[in-house]
């Protein structure tokens, strides 16, 4: 007899893949969902209801840019009714006072704002659109509304040297939390890896800077979160806290995945909320049971003492780099494929040579109607 | 903090902190941005009384009625103070 898996705590709701920005490391899949395929308001409300029943207590309302959904407030209300704590994950573009008060009125609890760099021009360049001024205004509005505000910055070669300035920006904007997330290399990030991958030195300096800020801010400063880069330390990351263990992702068209990058994996036969209830998907679908626990693991993971800590690392990374999603994550120094990553991070291997590598960007999906507000 | 300050305090959840019962797991939770605190034992019951109107004294006597013989007079104010330090009550 097998016991039922633990209930999920969190739902990542990718409400739309449309976004006014087009960052070179976007975590959306290479194949973006068209707006005409998106779930409608009632379908998202039903997702929230079922998620609440299933045990979900937290949701990130994300995208793309979730503010592009005109029915966002209705989705917030549905989550709130289901007992789910809501956090808006936004680029800040399109967040004016009226919109924010509509959302807080609907029960929105907190906001996470992305910034691409502390320097306005660099931020606009990395995001591929003028948006820094919008972000600054959005931060002030969220503060004024009294909602907790987190700042999220994806770190890579172009902004790792500016970590001090990023923390100072967070302090100036009065945020409660600063998340410094080193870029992950699958999907768009892998496509642009040559341009994004930092040098070992750069990373070491940034890590030291974060350590100094942690000491300074320990008493009453904002919380400082450093999401480690897995290419440099020979250790696989415990991806998503385990496959189908803690959270689930619902994509704009209703596909349900154990992690936002998993759409690229073969043989998952990804289930959709249009066809199956969420509890069946969590408990029984192939997508969620395939890599749950440790039984599926081949060696060296299966006989490894760390298998319950890192779960064999990231399936998407194993697949992207080796073609086989069951192999140990090449980020791990015990993986037979570790050389694939090691070669990239050796001294100077990542140092820019000659002309800078151009960034390949997603083309922004156009909003559905011309009159739709951004 | 002085005993008098504790006695005057009418604890309530800090903004952005939500107390709720989790039916799926049969437990009480505190929900915060990026964080879930699982409340053990009577913690959820105690926090349920922290509505910003009751003083710490009211809370202690209500709990003393409900749980005769429990060491509420000493434990509860210390527990509430700890949660204030965490920033979850104010
Ligand atoms: S802000 Fe950048 S990373 Fe986020 S969804 Fe838009 S393009 Fe992708
Ligand atoms: S061999 Fe597998 S389980 Fe062991 S540390 Fe490496 S990735 Fe983790």
From TrEMBL, chain A:
NCBIfam families: PQQ_syn_pqqE, rSAM_more_4Fe4S. Belongs to the radical SAM superfamily. PqqE family. It comes from the Bacteria. It is an enzyme of class 1 (oxidoreductase). This is PqqA peptide cyclase. Pathway: Cofactor biosynthesis; pyrroloquinoline quinone biosynthesis. Catalyzes the cross-linking of a glutamate residue and a tyrosine residue in the PqqA protein as part of the biosynthesis of pyrroloquinoline quinone (PQQ). Keywords: 4Fe-4S, Iron, Iron-sulfur, Metal-binding, Oxidoreductase, PQQ biosynthesis, S-adenosyl-L-methionine. Binds 1 [4Fe-4S] cluster. The cluster is coordinated with 3 cysteines and an exchangeable S-adenosyl-L-methionine. Its cofactor is [4Fe-4S] cluster. It holds the Pfam family Radical_SAM. Interacts with PqqD. The interaction is necessary for activity of PqqE. Residues 5-223 form the Radical SAM core domain. Residues 346-374 are annotated as: Disordered. It catalyses: [PQQ precursor protein] + S-adenosyl-L-methionine = E-Y cross-linked-[PQQ precursor protein] + 5'-deoxyadenosine + L-methionine + H(+). The keyword S-adenosyl-L-methionine applies. It comes from Streptomyces spinosisporus. [4Fe-4S] cluster binds at residues 19, 23, 26. Its EC number is 1.21.98.4.
TrEMBL record, chain B:
InterPro entries: PQQD, PqqD_bac, PqqD_sf. The keyword Phosphoprotein does not apply. Keywords: PQQ biosynthesis. The keyword Phosphoprotein does not apply. Pathway: Cofactor biosynthesis; pyrroloquinoline quinone biosynthesis. Gene3D superfamilies: Coenzyme PQQ synthesis protein D (PqqD). Signal peptide: none annotated. Monomer. Interacts with PqqE. This is Pyrroloquinoline quinone biosynthesis peptide chaperone PqqD. It comes from Streptomyces spinosisporus. The gene is pqqD.
């Amino acid at each position: 007899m097998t016991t039922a898996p633990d209930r999920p705590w969190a739902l990542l709701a990718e409400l739309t893949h449309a976004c006014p920005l087009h960052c070179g490391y976007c975590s959306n899949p290479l194949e973006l969902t068209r707006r005409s395929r998106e779930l409608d308001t009632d379908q998202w409300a039903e997702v929230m209801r079922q998620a609440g029943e299933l045990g979900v207590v937290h949701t990130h309302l994300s995208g793309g840019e979730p503010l592009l959904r005109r029915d966002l407030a209705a989705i917030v209300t549905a989550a709130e009714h289901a007992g789910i704590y809501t956090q808006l994950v936004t680029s800040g573009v399109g967040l004016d006072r009226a919109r924010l008060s509509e959302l807080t009125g609907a029960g929105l609890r907190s906001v996470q704002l992305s910034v691409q760099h502390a320097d306005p021009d660099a931020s606009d360049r990395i995001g591929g659109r003028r948006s820094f001024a919008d972000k600054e205004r959005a931060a002030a509005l969220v503060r004024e509304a009294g909602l907790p505000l987190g700042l999220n910055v994806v770190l890579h070669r172009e902004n790792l040297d500016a970590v001090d300035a990023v923390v100072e920006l967070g302090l100036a904007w009065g945020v409660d939390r600063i998340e410094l997330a080193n870029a992950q290399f699958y999907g768009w990030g892998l496509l642009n890896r040559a341009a994004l991958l930092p040098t070992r030195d750069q990373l070491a300096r940034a890590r030291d800077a974060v350590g100094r800020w942690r000491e300074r801010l320990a008493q009453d400063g904002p919380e400082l979160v450093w999401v480690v880069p897995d290419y440099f330390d020979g250790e696989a990351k415990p991806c998503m806290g385990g496959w189908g263990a803690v959270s689930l992702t619902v994509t704009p068209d209703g596909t349900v995945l154990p992690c936002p990058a998993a759409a690229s994996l073969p043989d998952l036969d990804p289930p959709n909320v249009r066809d199956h209830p969420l509890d069946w998907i969590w408990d029984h679908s192939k997508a969620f049971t395939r890599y749950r626990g440790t039984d599926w693991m081949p060696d060296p993971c299966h006989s490894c003492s760390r298998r319950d800590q890192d779960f064999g690392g990231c399936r998407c990374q194993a697949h992207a780099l080796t073609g086989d999603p069951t192999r140990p994550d090449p980020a791990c120094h015990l993986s037979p494929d570790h050389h694939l990553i090691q070669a990239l991070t050796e001294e100077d291997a990542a140092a820019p040579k000659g002309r800078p590598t151009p960034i390949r960007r997603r083309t922004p999906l156009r909003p559905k109607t011309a009159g739709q507000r951004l | 903090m002085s005993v008098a300050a504790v006695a005057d305090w009418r604890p309530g959840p800090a903004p952005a902190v939500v107390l709720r019962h989790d039916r799926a797991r049969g437990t009480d939770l505190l929900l915060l941005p990026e964080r879930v605190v699982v409340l053990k034992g009577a913690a959820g019951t105690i926090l349920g009384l922290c509505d910003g109107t009751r003083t710490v004294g009211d809370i202690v006597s209500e709990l003393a009625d409900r749980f005769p013989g429990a060491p509420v007079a000493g434990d509860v104010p210390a527990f509430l103070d700890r949660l204030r330090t965490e920033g979850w009550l104010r």
